[in-house]
Structures are given as structure tokens and as C-alpha cells.
Design brief:
- The structure is a single chain.
- The chain has about 200 residues and is α/β, with parallel strands linked by helices.
- It is built from eight helices and eight strands, in the order αβαββαβαβαβαβαβα.
- The chain folds into two domains: about 35 residues; about 150 residues, HAD superfamily/HAD-like (Rossmann fold).
- Helix 7 links the parallel strand 7 and strand 8.
- The longest helix has 30 residues.
- The protein is globular and about 50 Å long.
């Protein structure tokens, strides 16, 4: 039998490979969860992350976007608990900016052409370490900024190039609660998530 792999041995080897693959996945998940523990700053793109990426052009020329109210609740709660939130968007919408500012987000930057440069300067100005930053983007303009952040995240429907550099891919799509997903994970791991009824869903 020397040098011969029997059918039984093949089955055992197959099981070992499956177990090893599963173990690797568990280790990787634990490593990512450890990254969540260090986060105190959330950075989000708008179109494709806080919205579903759809633009509805209205008769008056206004481009309407669809946003998720659960993301709004999570961002408000995060701010209340002392987390930083920065919005960096290449788009431009007074309506979106107004909505985000009403949630209590002070730093809403629109018409940004170099997101990585803006993020780098923000971290420097606020003395924030990269390992404390979670950035969630969905498309090519977010690529370099994602590589700066300590924890790169994206929605499940992000571009392939973004998924390839992301350490965490949400199971939710852009505009369907992916921001809430990462905020809730961070806050629960750090013991800061609670059912705060004083925060309005909006």
C-alpha cells in the first residue's frame, strides 16, 4: 500500500482539507474582529454606500438619492457615544448634506476629487491613528482611501476591485443598511451599543 492513496484515505484527506479551510476562515474572521476593536472613527462614501447608487433625476434637475433610515439611527448613536464620523463624497447634493448634518455629522465633504488626500489630512489634523479608522467605500474612487484606513470595508455589491482590498465585506448592499452593519459591529464589540430610544430614527 506504500505510495497508494486509497478511497478511504482520499475521504480522510478531503475532510482534513475542509477542516483546515474552515479553521483558516475562523482565524481570519477573528483577526478582522480584532481590527473592529480599535475603531473610533467611521468614514463613509455616499453614493453606493449610504445610498443604493441610484440617481433619480427630477423635473427641476435635482438628483434624488435613496438612503436608509437605519444607517441614520446608527450614525446618530455613534456620535452620541463619542465616535467620529466623516463623510467623503465625490458627488454634490445639498439635500444629502442637509440630511447628514441633521443627524449631527459635522464633517460632510462633497465634490471631493482626492479622497485619500482628504482622509490623510483629517487624520493628521485630529491626531487619529490609521488603525482607529474604518473606511467604507464601493467603487474605484474609494480605492486609495481604503488602503489608508486601518479597516477597509465595503457593501456586498461593491466593485470587484474594492472587494479585493476590503478586509470586511458587509452582507448588505449600499443604501440597505451596510453602514449600520459596521457601526453596530464596532459598538457591540466595544460594549457601546444599546437600545437608546432617545435617538430618533431619521
Amino acid at each position: 500500500m506504500n505510495g497508494v492513496i486509497t478511497k478511504r484515505n482520499k475521504q480522510l484527506i478531503g475532510k482534513c482539507i475542509l477542516i483546515s479551510t474552515f479553521a483558516v476562515e475562523i482565524i481570519l474572521q477573528m483577526n478582522v474582529l480584532e481590527l473592529f476593536n480599535h475603531i473610533n472613527t467611521f468614514v463613509f462614501d455616499v453614493d453606493g454606500v449610504l445610498t443604493d447608487g441610484t440617481l433619480l433625476v427630477l423635473p427641476d434637475g435635482v438628483m434624488a438619492r435613496r438612503m436608509n433610515i437605519r444607517d441614520g439611527y446608527a450614525m446618530q448613536l455613534a456620535i452620541k457615544k463619542g465616535y467620529n464620523i466623516l463623510i467623503i463624497s465625490g458627488g454634490n447634493s445639498d439635500e444629502v448634506k442637509d440630511r447628514l448634518e441633521k443627524l449631527g455629522i459635522i464633517n460632510v465633504l462633497m465634490k471631493v476629487t482626492d479622497k485619500a488626500a482628504i482622509l490623510t489630512q483629517y487624520l493628521k489634523d485630529n491626531k487619529i491613528k490609521k488603525e482607529q479608522v474604518l473606511f467604507m467605500g464601493d467603487d474605484i474612487p474609494d480605492l486609495h482611501a481604503l488602503q489608508i484606513a486601518g479597516l477597509a470595508c465595503c457593501p456586498v455589491d461593491a466593485a470587484a476591485e474594492i472587494k479585493s482590498v476590503s478586509q470586511y465585506i458587509s452582507h448588505l448592499k449600499g443604501g440597505e443598511g451596510c453602514a449600520r452593519d459596521v457601526i453596530e459591529k464596532v459598538m457591540k464589540l466595544q460594549g457601546n451599543w444599546n437600545e437608546d430610544v432617545s435617538v430618533r430614527a431619521q
